[in-house]
């Protein structure tokens, strides 16, 4: 029997009955908003439950929403896949944008190691308990995090660039 969305919701809600989950069906993927302090327990449950079997972490990434209140300015998004039933689930954990931190899941999914490093590098998220949290793509000397929305898209001090050559003029900016 195929794994149904209602079955996934019921199992999560029954196991973590003290947590008010927010469920949304976004196209063909169930999306679940979870408290950040429970992320390890929930990810471990989804992986180890004999019926759910979300054994594959497809992706882990960050998103920055600076217009939200401080405790919801960053979200860490986990995509997991049950290959037996070809079912996917998206887990979202909102965290504070001023001091972004969440527990590492690298001990649960070793592939999360590099994904967490990339999210740290680009968003500045501290993955507590990560075995080697350091920049992975940007220079170690870099002090900012380029995927955060306060990061400037272009270097305003450049003198070697003429906007006319890029199709940009004062009238179409």
From TrEMBL:
Region (Disordered): 148-173
Mode of membrane association: Peripheral membrane protein
First-level EC class: translocase
Biological role: NDH-1 shuttles electrons from NADH, via FMN and iron-sulfur (Fe-S) centers, to quinones in the respiratory chain. The immediate electron acceptor for the enzyme in this species is believed to be a menaquinone. Couples the redox reaction to proton translocation (for every two electrons transferred, four hydrogen ions are translocated across the cytoplasmic membrane), and thus conserves the redox energy in a proton gradient.
Gene this protein is translated from: nuoC
Family indicated by similarity: Belongs to the complex I 30 kDa subunit family.
Any Gene Ontology CC annotation: plasma membrane
Listed GO MF terms: NADH dehydrogenase (quinone) (non-electrogenic) activity; NADH dehydrogenase (ubiquinone) activity; quinone binding
Protein name per UniProt: NADH-quinone oxidoreductase subunit C
Every NADH:ubiquinone oxidoreductase 30kDa subunit domain range: 32-154
Organism for this UniProt entry: Flavobacterium faecale
Keywords tagged on the record: Cell membrane, Membrane, NAD, Quinone, Translocase, Transport
Lineage summary: Bacteria, Pseudomonadati, Bacteroidota, Flavobacteriia, Flavobacteriales
Oligomeric form and interacting partners: NDH-1 is composed of 14 different subunits. Subunits NuoB, C, D, E, F, and G constitute the peripheral sector of the complex.
Major localization listed first in the record, in broad terms: membrane
EC number of this enzyme: 7.1.1.-
Cell compartment(s), UniProt: Cell membrane
Entry annotated with the keyword Cell membrane: yes
Domain of life assignment: Bacteria
Regions of compositional bias (Basic and acidic residues) in chain numbering: 148-166
SUPFAM superfamilies: Nqo5-like
Presence of keyword Metal-binding: no
Catalytic activity: a quinone + NADH + 5 H(+)(in) = a quinol + NAD(+) + 4 H(+)(out)
């Amino acid at each position: 029997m195929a794994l149904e969305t209602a079955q996934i919701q019921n199992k999560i809600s029954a196991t973590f009955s003290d947590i008010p989950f927010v469920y949304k069906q976004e196209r063909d993927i169930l999306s679940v908003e979870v408290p950040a302090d429970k992320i390890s327990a929930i990810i471990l449950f989804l992986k180890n439950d004999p019926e759910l079997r979300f054994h594959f972490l497809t992706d882990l990434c960050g998103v920055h929403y600076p217009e939200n209140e401080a405790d919801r300015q960053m979200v860490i998004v986990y995509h997991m896949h049950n290959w037996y039933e070809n079912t996917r689930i998206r887990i979202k954990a909102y965290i504070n944008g001023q001091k972004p931190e969440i527990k590492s899941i690298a001990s649960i999914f070793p592939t999360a190691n590099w994904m967490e490093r990339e999210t740290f590098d680009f968003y500045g998220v501290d993955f507590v308990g990560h075995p080697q949290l350091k920049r992975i793509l940007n220079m170690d000397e870099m002090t900012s995090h380029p995927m955060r929305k306060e990061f400037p898209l272009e270097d305003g001090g450049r003198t070697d660039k003429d906007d006319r050559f890029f199709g940009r003029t004062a009238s179409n900016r």
